[in-house]
């Protein structure tokens, strides 16, 4: 089967059929044929009904034969019968289309989503769009096919009935046709309106769903019990829910009003037409059978133009809005060469330099880093210290290529960071982020994800065990029912949970199994008990041997291990030097150190 590919292009109205067709050509064609036959059956029914009534009439006047009436009757039963059962045939193909859409479009969306630039995930607006596009792709594809074919079906039926009217009394056909135009315009507008309202609702929905998660989820269960904020948060949940409900209600009222308005206008018009049709019938220009069929057809037309068409067009505008979102999503920046694995070749690191780097987070106006310059050299150990929010973690994010919209230069071996491939950047750095991840997979895999190229190696357990020993977690893991194969977290059967500190040690093991020359440790001991912490410091000598380490910590005693300390304050480096030199300067670092020491004493 050909794989669906998300193209970097503006998706147009014809993609409403092209997308379902690429997901499942067979089901889409079958649905199209089913809808086409249904539309033709409806149009045919008008002619068959006219002929049936006329042949019965002729029979009653002893002018026709009974077999004629029987033939028309059978045809009438076929038309009506097909219209009744065809939707069941269609349903089977819709189920198939949905399944394949999930496999095809769903996969393409997930693939792209996992490779998006970091800033897109952080930005509220793009994050909302990503969620809108990736939510239930199977339903989206089903709706595209269903709504497009439905519109086609109504148009064929309307044109068919109008044509029959036109052939019989031409001016009534034209008049009815013209009056459909403003109604179509009304439907288009109301459809777009409806979709925009939905977007507005999504803004509230996400927030009340978040409160819902806090109120019922597992993550906050301890604090929920302790602080007993349930009542208060319930109110906040309810307010947002109400806001969303009111917007939905308004949208529904508008939609219903435009449907009612349309159908009222069409009812008046078609009733007038039926009355007018009496004249050519009385004159014998049209048969009484045709009069009955056209009168029935006219009222059918009312329902189609006044109700079904408004719904179909309005629903189709929603699908087109989805295509607009999809086009934006398809054009979103991917991390360049994101699929590349870290290069395993030994990298000869000389230095990393920040030259006059300033940085704002995307979509914000405040400079988080202000004209920062520093140099990090191979095989040396560095520490970054400073108050909360000073910008320490931000520096590590820039260094590892998560954001590339900075001013100034970041140079690795004298070459701008942006000119390196992702594979190379990945091969330079390893580390523990401050908000490190806790994977609900086995202990072994939790460590091995730090060095994916080792996952297939026969002696990988050996590496895992060594890393676990270094971070002081080996004995604990050996005491688990399945050793390093024990699943962690609550999603696997028999999964065990670690304490905060144990998780942190595991993240550390993941960082040190990676052979990258630069190791970034952002608060790697924050959750450790005092003994583990000082054991870890002892290990740092070993861990950092032959590597460049960047250590971020609020425990200023530990920064003694660094060759050079950078002190950050509100996005600027305000002091630089070794521990002793900084104490000697007697400024911010000395102050922070003294206040911590004083507290210990
Ligand atoms: N994704 C983000 N979007 C916008 N602003 C952010 C984002 N992440 C951090 N900030 C802001 O950037 C500033 C620096 O944050 P950063 O995490 O670098 O501080 P830090 O020095 O590591 O602090 P801490 O010691 O608390 O870890 C903070 O004021 C924070 O509000
Ligand atoms: Mg931080």
What does this structure look like?
By secondary structure, the chain is an alpha/beta fold. It folds into two domains: 15-331, ABC transporter transmembrane region fold (Up-down Bundle), CATH 1.20.1560; 351-600, P-loop containing nucleotide triphosphate hydrolases (Rossmann fold, 3-Layer(aba) Sandwich), CATH 3.40.50.300. The chain has 19 helices and ten strands. The chain has a six-stranded mixed sheet with strand order 6-7-8-3-9-10, sandwiched between helices. The protein has a four-stranded antiparallel sheet with strand order 2-1-4-5, with helices on one face. Strand 4 (407-412) and strand 5 (415-416) form a beta hairpin. Helix 5 packs across helix 10 (288-331) and helix 6 (137-168) packs antiparallel against helix 10. The radius of gyration is 35 Å and the shape is elongated. It binds adenosine-5'-triphosphate (ATP) and magnesium ion. Adenosine-5'-triphosphate (ATP) binds at residues 122, 361, 364, 368, 386, 388-394, 434.
Q: Spell out the CATH superfamily of the largest domain.
A: ABC transporter type 1, transmembrane domain
- Annotation field: number of helices: 19
Please tell me the total number of domains.
Answer: 2
Total count of strands = 10
User: Structural class, from helix and strand content?
Assistant: alpha/beta
